[in-house]
Specification:
Layout (H helix, E strand, L loop, with lengths): L1 E3 L2 E3 L11 H9 L31 H18 L2 E3 L11 E5 L9 H17 L3 E6 L13 E2 L4 H6 L9 H15 L3 E5 L8 H14 L2 E5 L6 E2 L3 E3 L2 E7 L8 E10 L5 E11 L5 E6 L3 H4 L2 E6 L8 E3 L7 E7 L12 H9 L3 E5 L2 H6 L4 E5 L6 H12 L3 E5 L2 H12 L18 E3 L4 E2 L3 E2 L19 E2 L1 E2 L12 E4 L5 E8 L2 E6 L14 H9 L19 E8 L5 E2 L7 E2 H5 L10 E5 L2 E5 L19 E4 L6 E2 L1 H22 L10 H21 L15 H12 L4 E3 L4 H21 L8 E3 L11 E5 L9 H12 L3 E5 L14 H9 L8 E3 L26 E3 L14 H4 L6 E4 L3 H5 L16 H20 L2 H4 L3 H9 L1
Parallel strand pairs: 4-5, 4-7, 7-8, 8-34, 17-18, 17-19, 19-20, 20-28, 21-22, 36-37, 36-38, 38-39, 39-42
Antiparallel strand pairs: 1-2, 2-3, 3-35, 5-6, 9-11, 10-11, 11-14, 12-13, 12-15, 15-16, 21-25, 23-24, 26-27, 27-28, 29-30, 29-31, 29-32, 32-33, 40-41, 41-42
């Protein structure tokens, strides 16, 4: 195969015949031998006569050009030219297919897998050995893959999935050099993600090693994967930054969703945000303005298109503002507000929590995450019962000691109430302990270092934190287990106990500086944070606090950014997590240690994405998406035949054998030149020559042919949006669905047809697939009149916003959703509702539970079931006009992309993350949709069959 840019010749040796064209020109232009001269006296009688018809002495130049063009077209045709040919492998030794396999490969993984399988198929036809390497898969040090027959690798590639971490290019660079020495060189096909992962020189080293081993082809993505930095709280809103590597790729809109769990435990979208990466900018801000209740339910933020682990940011307690209720036993409105107990608590909690105050009953009704009682001594029976029930249901109760608490415990002991109080973690002794008192210290006591693996593990205790007075706990067998912090003499400073699903924590000192200097220190704030009153100390912002503990994965992300079970993954040392570089031994996810939880993301607040270094000289660089291959042999043969026919006509005209159609040489030359130009441009460009039109209106043959084709067979039609790529996918999608219908049902649709709403008649089609484009112009009034007539006479419009975002209803959220609201504003449509689980659309051919396309999870909307009592008099519902068929179906699953195939039957777009299962369900939905349009209420009417048979029997 010989290539010239986008054109390649499969039989290039035939092009050598083009060199004979100059000799052929000379032979055709050669003058015939001069005639013999014979004197004949009678010729004098012809002198003076004029002959208006002259025969040319030589063959006209334009006729020579026509003949040479015909011969050249035939030579080029037999050389078999192909436009946008599939590149063949360049080498002859073993083929090494290198796949980055990391998170940056996830957005177009299906296309990468297809390219790898295509290369293996070429190697198998050439009987070449192959090696497939996944740079993100764990490898033993020094291990070298062995060449095997190319077909043996097919199963490994088909089951391969992207990982949730970066590829290990440095680890394979040395292996590639050693492998080249063992095999004597090899050819490499490197499917790279185009990103420079930590250690940018590693990619350059690997490229150099592969280039030195033999021919190197690097296939990069059409667009680099996006990243997402961890979310933060700013002015009460959840904010995350989306980042990219190539700021020169132009403007790029980005949509993201905040995902959490609903009351029933299932995942749901809690909010949507949009941003736009402008040209020259590498980051943009996504802002989620959510109420506190929803914001605290957010578990992760995910980019909607091109999903990957790098496009997901996990949220932990660092971005969840807890609601904390404060109650004090003293009057806080006195003359010394800065020394009150609530003052220190407010200052410690307000930066990270929503602080509410009031009476105990009102606080419990507000649904707080925690309640803090500052020296609240006596609690009446009603409040005690309500507080106990709230705590046992999962609330956190934190109590601080003080004179009132000590007095209340003394009175309880005097009255003989010695049982365990559910609102206290331990029993207290009467009185207290103070410097210079009956149970005195000689000096204020310091705080001991916190015990390992406790809730305060890792916090530094300042030397100036001392305690001069406290209430003491009664000794008992369970006191040590309930102690979280102690003083230098071993007496408890903080105790805690579990109560059903909740917990009670007691500080044996006051919340102000009267008994200790603890409230004056930063340790006071940190201890409250560790108790989960406001934020977890083990958040993504303080990875250095991870060291010194072992963390167990609770949930991990896969390469697509989907949460999953950690499986057999064991605990990870905090020092490994603190490196901030997830890998096979520490994938991104949520890790827990005791009462602490931490979200480990691929990106940090300082992460930037960088493009991969340029490849070595001589490397063939390709993109993942290629133009469709087109065979030019047929058009060139047709051109040669047309030119030969023109040559025959022109030769007859020049020789004078066409009576009444004699052409002057110059006129004939002009006609042939025009025909030659039209013949060359038309077949090669794939467009039909234009026909001149008269000034009077005449029937349009193309429109008549379109109408005839649409009425002869069942035809699926789509609305042309003006966006070439969207229209191409729509045509390919309906073509793929038509193939499936012909193979599985009695419906045999013809080729799909694109419809221009402004010009074409719509009555010929049972269904219109309308992909919503954000910038599609609004149709005219005449077009809306045709559309309304179409829906009122049995037609159905399938709107597809292609954004997987219709949970809140049609026309919400994304630019496509807003465009849908604009485009459908003038349509006469009935009220809509989400498709019920028992709708006839779920059983017209296949039994379905959902309606996926390229995306899964989009709500399907169609005509709501009318209430006869609410139906206006004299008005007929759509379902009665259309035999039970909804005139409109609205979704956002991008069905056309899931159905789309090329001429060879290959799928054009990746679908979902579960292989072919989601695509199969998308085809089943398409079959149900077409059968629903064509059969109406047939399936729904089957429920009446038993009653009809019984009536006939009677």
């Amino acid at each position: 195969m010989l290539s010239f840019g986008a054109i390649a010749f499969l039989n290039p040796w035939l092009l050598a015949a083009l060199a004979a064209l100059p000799a052929l020109w000379w032979l055709l232009r050669a003058t015939p031998p001069a005639p013999r001269r014979i004197r004949f006296p009678g010729v004098r009688l012809l002198l003076g006569l004029q002959d208006p018809e002259r025969m040319p002495e030589r063959t006209p130049w334009w006729l020579l050009l026509l003949r040479l063009a015909a011969i050249a077209a035939a030579i080029l045709a037999f050389a078999h030219p192909v436009q946008n040919p599939t590149a063949d492998l360049a080498g002859r030794g073993p083929l090494v297919v290198v796949m980055d396999g990391g998170w940056g490969s996830a957005p177009d993984w299906e296309a990468r897998r297809a390219r790898a399988l295509e290369a293996l198929e070429q190697a198998e036809r050439a009987d070449r050995a192959a090696i497939v390497v996944n740079l993100a898969a764990p490898r033993a040090p020094g291990a070298r893959p062995d060449p095997r027959p190319a077909g043996d690798w097919r199963g490994a590639v088909e089951t391969m999935a992207p990982a949730a971490w970066a590829p290990d290019r440095a680890g394979f660079a040395e292996t590639a050099a050693a492998l080249s020495d063992d095999l004597g060189g090899f050819e490499t096909l490197w499917l790279t993600d185009g990103l420079a992962h930590p250690g940018a020189e590693d990619g350059a080293d690997l490229a150099a090693a592969l280039s030195a081993a033999g021919p190197l082809t690097m296939i990069g993505p059409d667009r680099l994967a996006l990243g997402l930095r961890p979310p933060v709280l700013e002015d009460g809103a959840l904010v995350a930054a989306v980042i990219r590597a190539d700021a020169a790729e132009g403007p790029r809109p980005v949509s993201a969703a905040a995902i959490g769990r609903g009351p029933q435990g299932g995942e749901r979208r809690l909010g949507l945000a949009e941003a736009r990466l402008e040209e020259g900018e590498n980051d943009a801000t996504l802002v989620f303005d959510l109420p506190l209740e929803l914001r605290n339910q957010v578990e992760r933020i995910a980019i909607l298109t091109g999903g990957s682990a790098g496009g997901v940011a996990l949220a932990d307690d660092a971005v969840r503002r807890k609601r904390v209720g404060l109650i004090s036993g003293e009057d806080d409105s006195g003359s010394r507000p800065l020394t009150s107990q609530l003052h220190f608590l407010r200052k410690a909690l307000e930066p990270t929590a929503e602080v509410v105050e009031g009476d105990l009953a009102a606080l419990i009704d507000s649904g707080p995450d925690a309640i803090v009682l500052a020296d609240l001594g006596v609690i009446n029976d009603t409040d005690r019962a309500a507080l106990t029930a709230w705590m046992e249901a999962g609330g956190l109760l934190v109590r601080f000691a003080g004179p009132r608490t000590a007095r209340a415990e003394t009175e309880a002991l005097r009255e003989g109430r010695t049982g365990e109080d559910p609102l206290m973690p331990v029993r207290l002794r009467a009185g207290g302990r103070a410097v210079g008192g009956a149970m005195s210290w000689e000096a204020p006591q310091a705080v001991r270092p916190f015990p390992p693996e406790g809730v305060f593990d890792g916090l530094d205790v300042p030397a100036d934190v001392t305690v001069g007075r406290q209430v003491l706990a009664q000794p008992g067998p369970d006191l040590a287990a309930r102690t979280l912090a102690t003083l230098a003499d071993g007496t408890p400073l903080v105790t805690a106990a579990d109560r059903e699903l909740g917990r009670v924590v007691f500080f044996h000192v006051t919340a102000n500086a009267e008994w200790s200097t603890l409230p004056l220190s930063g340790l006071f704030v940190q201890m409250l944070e560790r108790l989960a009153l406001a934020a977890s100390a083990g958040s993504h912002a303080t990875l250095e606090a991870l060291e010194g503990a072992t963390w167990t994965p609770e949930m991990v992300l896969d390469g697509y950014g989907r949460p999953g079970d950690p499986g057999r993954l064991r605990g990870v040392l905090g020092a490994r997590l603190a490196e901030g570089r997830p890998g096979p031994d520490a994938p991104p996810g949520v890790y827990v240690s005791g009462d602490r939880a931490v979200a480990v993301n691929l990106a940090s607040a300082e992460t930037t994405l960088v493009p991969a270094p340029p490849p070595p000289a001589g490397t063939r660089v390709e993109r993942m998406t290629r133009a469709e291959e087109r065979d030019l042999q047929g058009p060139l043969l047709a051109l040669a035949l047309i030119l030969l026919a023109l040559d025959a006509v022109a030769a007859l005209a020049v020789s004078g054998r066409l009576r009444g159609a004699r052409l002057r040489p110059r006129a004939a030359g002009a006609v042939v030149a025009l025909a030659l130009g039209a013949g060359l441009v038309g077949p090669l460009a794939g467009v039909a020559p234009a026909h001149a039109q008269g000034t009077e209106a005449a029937p349009d043959p193309a429109a008549d042919a379109l109408a005839l084709a649409a009425t002869r067979d069942t035809v699926l039609a789509y609305v042309m949006t003006g966006d070439a790529e969207v229209d191409r996918i729509s045509a390919a999608g309906l073509a793929g669905l038509s193939r499936v219908l012909a193979a599985r049902t009695a419906v045999e649709p013809a080729e799909p047809i694109g419809v221009n709403l402004e010009e074409d008649e719509l009555a010929f089609y049972p269904m219109l697939y309308w992909p919503v484009s954000a910038d599609m112009p609004t149709p005219s009034d005449a077009a809306y009149a045709r559309l309304n007539a179409f829906t009122r006479t049995g037609g159905m419009i399938v709107f597809d916003t292609r954004d997987a975002n219709l949970a809140a209803g049609p026309g919400s959220g994304t630019p496509e959703g807003r465009a849908l609201r604009r485009l459908a504003a003038q349509l006469d449509l009935p009220p809509l509702e989400p498709a019920p689980s028992d709708h006839v659309l779920t059983r017209t051919f296949y039994l379905l539970q959902d309606f996926p396309g390229r995306w899964r999870g989009s709500e399907l909307w169609l005509e709501a079931t009318p209430d006869p009592a609410e139906q206006p008099a004299g008005e007929t519902p759509f379902r009665h006009l259309n035999d039970g068929v909804s005139p409109v179906v609205i979704g956002g699953a991008d069905w056309a992309s899931a159905w789309a195939v090329n001429d060879r039957g290959d799928f054009l777009s990746p679908v979902g993350r579960d292989g072919g299962r989601q695509r199969e369900m998308a085809f089943r939905f398409g079959v149900n949709l077409v059968m629903y349009v064509l059969t109406g209420s047939y399936k729904s009417d089957q429920v009446h069959v038993p009653a009809l048979l019984e009536r006939l029997g009677n």
